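protien #1 (seq + structre)
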Amino acid sequence: MLRCVIGKRWDNLGSQFPPSVGTTLQRFIGFLIFWAIELPFCSLRPNRLRWLYTFKAWTLPPSVFGLLIYCLVQSRGQLADDDALTGSSTRPRGAALVWLVVGSINSAMGNWSTFIANMPDFSRYAKNPSAVMWTHIIFVPFPAALGGMIGIFGTSCIQRAWGVTLWNQWDLLDAILEHSWSGPARLGVFLLAFCAALFNFGTILGANLLPFASDATALLPAYFNLTRGMWFCCAVSLALMPWKLLASADGFLAFLQGYGIFMGPTAAIMVADYWVVRRGNIHIADAYSSAPGARYMYFHGFNLNAIVAYFCGMMIPFVGFVGTFGISVPRAATRCDEIGWYVSAVVAGVVYVTLCRLRPLENIDKSLSWEELAVQFAKSREVPHDETDSEQGTAETEKEGPEMSIRDDIEVSCVHVV
């Protein structure tokens, strides 16, 4: 975006960082601007960000299809050969093709595993559970698959037209400017970059800052609320120097590609605990109590059944995961890692349910039917929790600090359970 506005002078800035920094001056300036714009939004409660995601939902699809149309025009509707696109003349067949497909799906599940585990952090603000369910059933799998297909077609068209394979959108936008440095091209690239930046902006708020703030508020309610948690996360993100990680930490990137084996058991245990073990019954108010002997304190605050189940699920594909760092491991371990998310999730869920049968948790009332506590709570409520109540709760939270934030979270969580 800055290159489109400033022009070629942006490429010829006088001073540059040494190679040891791991980034260029231009990218660092862009990062700081993006980071600074994000800061004011950390002071807004999630229910006040709906307009941002609505705007993002209306701007992203036209930009994606517009870029695809541009690529099709450049290649006159022709796609590149498979050999030119993949850089290899050999194609997987038989078992190799099956493992490639399974591994790709497993990788996609690993990328989505963070959202699966963190979904309650923002889905709890929905008016009712069905609003969350149908939104995710319809608007998560199909747009994600369509986006991948559009990326493949666009890359193939550009490879056919220009002879270069560009899988990264930012590299493609730079190539467009280098191919045609005209006013319309610069305007088009600016709008495309703006829509892509807006997409990442919303993802950072909803998938990174808000989950961290929710966890920090639950762990240290005397010091954090949602606003403080998001501000703290932004400060830490700058101190970690993420450009340095992307430039030099090959091991860190390998970890990101395979960390689904760590998140799969978490999601599986959460699902098994709510749907199978507790049958949808949670005493919401007790979940916010850390007093000794509280309903959900377990053994000094740790659910031993969940811990054992987590490690049972995670350790099976872990050997294959270690092999991604260049360490020699058996072929069977590598295959297990290629389906690591499935293995870790299924094993953890089954082990957790089994342990809860052999060693029942003391805080479960087996006499309760499915979501009976939620039904009782719904009948006891006299005033519906509408947007006006939500806004009032937000104002009280801002005035009274972390303690009010906890009471507000309890109310919102109860509504989500209902």
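ok now protien #2
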Amino acid sequence: MGCHFLLQGIFPTQGSNPGLPHCRQTLRDQVGFLLAVPPLSHCQASQCWAQPPVIILFSLPPLFQHRDLSNGEATRKLPQGVVYGVVRRSDQNQQKEMVVYGWTTNQLKEEMNYIKDVRATLEKVRKRMYGDYDEMRQKIRQLTQELSVSQAKQDYLENHIQTQSSALDSFNDMNAALASDSISLQKTLVDVTLENSNIKDQIRNLQQTYTASMDKLREKQRQLDAAQVENKLLKMKVESSQQANAEVMREMTRKLYSQYEEKLQEEQQRHNAEKEALLEETNSFLKAIEEANKKMQAAEISLEEKDQRIGELDRLIERMEKERHQLQLQLLEHETEMSVEITDSNKERYQQLEEASASLRERIRHLDDMVHCQQKKVKQMVEEYETKVHA
């Protein structure tokens, strides 16, 4: 079995001129014979050096295995199972020469497998890089499309915000008017409460006068009881003095009795007159209190009815304003669609949009009139209520 040699070249970049004759001479000096490497032209040599490293195996006959070297060294036997490789030095300071290295077959196989793995890994990396680049281009294209769509949406939203801001200004004016009306209603409510408090004060004063008159009546009743007791005492005195001076005592007693009877009748008449006067005054006060309570209840009921009516009108106005806002949005959509250039294909659609826009404008005008009419009604109700309260 012959000895095998490996020629491995670590090649420079494309365009450099490797020294192939020098490599042949080095092999002749080291091995003792020239390897069977065919001569290459300049173009073939440049192509060979530009390609990846190649492995060239040579088989030598047994008679060359014990040949003496040309540099005068002693005859030695080449080792079995060893592969020699020729490597060019990459150091720029050194001379351009080839160096012979020896490897075992197992090391050579491991190196070959390592090179194959590296090439496969580089191929995978290349495919992944180009695949990621395509995905990045697609994503960039999608992002540009999304940016254009978002810009269009932003323009639409700006126009929509402008229209809504104008609508909000008009609504703010209407709200200010309603707020002024509500303030006037609150003022009237405050006036009514003040009147109610005055009525309550009058009722309290009437109650105080009634209690004072009742106290006076009790005092008069007490005086009348005292007079009756005194009359009884006098009667007892008269009866006791009848035996001493019957006639005089009878006359005096009669006079005194008549005087006391007259005083008693006068006091009773005056007491009855004062009592009737106080009762009449109390009844008049009670009637005034009842009338004031009735007026207060009627005022509260009418105020609640007015509040309910005003609340219903406010809700109706709010619903009409919402409907008007929706109609304005539809009109804005039609106008934006009509702002596109008219062609023969969309001429019929343009006429339909124009008719729909006209009907929407008419409905909006009608709603404005209704809102104005309802606001007038609210103001009239408030004015009527104020006039009733002041009256």
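The beta strands are 3-8, 55-60, 82-88, 98-104.
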